[in-house]
Amino acid sequence: MSGSDTAPFLSQADDTGDGPVPGTPGLPGYMGNPKSENPEVPDRERLQRITGLSAGRSALIVAVLCYINLLNYMDRFTVAGVLPDIEQFFDIGDSSSGLIQTVFISSYMVLAPVFGYLGDRYNRKYLMCGGIAFWSLVTLGSSFIPRERFWLLLLTRGLVGVGEASYSTIAPTLIADLFVADQRSRMLSVFYFAIPVGSGLGYIAGSKVKDMAGDWHWALRVSLVTTWGLGVVAVLLLFLVVREPPRGAVERLSDSPPLNPTSWWADLRALARNPSFILSSLGFTAVAFVTGSLALWAPAFLLRSRVVLGETPPCLPGDSCSSSDSLIFGLITCLTGVLGVGLGVEFSRRLRRSNPRADPLVCAAGLLGSAPFLFLSLACARGSIVATYIFIFIGETLLSMNWAIVADILLYVVIPTRRSTAEAFQIVLSHLLGDAGSPYLIGLISDRLRRTWPPSFLSEFRALQFSLMLCAFVGALGGAAFLGTAIFIEGDRRRAQLHVQGLLHEARPEDDRIVVPQRGRSTRVPVSSVLI
């Protein structure tokens, strides 16, 4: 049956010789005219024949993927929930604290292209099973690090990136091969709800367990052992529930040939010539920069703000840092994530009926709107912690509007056989210039500023406050990148549509040659080698 797991590990995941079922409508949803009231979207029965999976099974697959995404982000942000205690335990400064997140993101970023390449060519289910299994094993020992082995903590956080790279590059492409049009947007929004919710639960779990046990180690141990157990469950669910759908089958015309994978270099050349993909990736890089900085530093900043306001005693060496800010920030992250992702998808869906550029414009509005509120949250922190929380809530809500929409843009401007590679490239770019370096950069700027002022709790607060203001500026730059995406989105979407339907073919390297006489015979040479 089509879509069943007949392919062995590291073999072609779907039978590229199988075309879609005769009579299947053409490319759905975003392809073609977005203003059309009756787009050629396959109904449930036809989708089931194409994918070999019932509507209930497809929804269950998304639920499993969402569950794993939730675990990923819970694990990622448990450390941020107890960061002040980690600084005290290892006796490290802000720049070293920023390295904890930077090392993890760097590992994740470096491995993403590897899994992107494999995900476009081999069985995606088994790749995810292997990565999640490794990730679960590494998390088990991450909290048993002695005081003098800070480098070992960095190493284990880096190894966690292996599992996340195997999953994040592949999971959205499975959803793209199961659903189309508005259904795809809704399922992506469900999938990306897990990012803010998981992040918030990570803060909450870390801070609450630490408060109950009086030791940050137990926050990591309980969280990571739980994550390990849930990770084993995740591997079993992946293996038993998830089925591999044929790539791009729901988007092909009935008489168009199936797409075959091209070389990795050909994929990269095509992506580099796709302005909508490049610009939207740059916009998402700004999102990653801001969220990465806030994720690590916001609880510590809020704690320093309370100390300066006299609401909380300072965090002294040997003492547990007592603060409710990690819990509150975690709750805000959960709420703003759910609200922001939902609002972004709904605004985009409604505006798309009258404006084909709705997706990048909603993303631009979210980033440009979040920048002033994030700035105000920092500026008001010395005067009112309540005002700071209000502005953080508004800013994070607007920032979260981008998550599902950016993924949707990638899926409809990139053809199915290179989507995992595109996901990997976007991950590399967004983390290389975004949250791989932003926590360390913020910490580095903070440390440099602190050295210029007399040592005090106020100078610690001001240094981190001024360094975090960089986030508002980067957010505005990201909004400009999404405005640029809006210029090219229609043409790139149409080209992807025609390519999938077999009506447009990319020029191969040999097509860029011309025939010239050479030594008495006709020879094909590159155009660039001929002087005219």
In words, what does this structure look like?
- There is one protein chain.
- This protein has 2 domains: 47-250, Growth Hormone, Chain: A, CATH 1.20.1250.20; 262-504, Growth Hormone, Chain: A (Up-down Bundle), CATH 1.20.1250.
- Helices cover 68% and strands 2% of the residues.
- It has 19 helices and 2 strands.
- A two-stranded antiparallel sheet has the order 1-2.
- It is globular and about 80 Å long.
- The relative contact order is 0.15.
- Residues 1-40 and 527-532 have low confidence and may be disordered.
Strand content: under 5%
Number of domains: 2
Strand tally: 2
Query: What pattern of helices and strands is seen along the backbone?
Result: HHHHHHHHHHHHHHHHHHHEE
Helix and strand composition category: mainly alpha
Corresponding CATH architecture of the largest domain: Up-down Bundle
- What percentage of residues falls in helices of 4 or more residues? 55-70%
Spatial strand arrangement across the major sheet: 1-2
Count the helices. How many? 19
What is the overall shape?
A: globular
Largest sheet geometry: 2 strands, antiparallel
Report the CATH superfamily of the largest domain. Answer: MFS general substrate transporter like domains
Compute the average pLDDT.
76
Distance between the termini: 57 Å
Determine the CATH topology of the largest domain: Growth Hormone, Chain: A
For the record, the CATH class of the largest domain is: Mainly Alpha
Uncertain regions: pLDDT < 50 for 5+ in a row?
1-40, 527-532
User: How much is the radius of gyration in Å?
Assistant: 24 Å
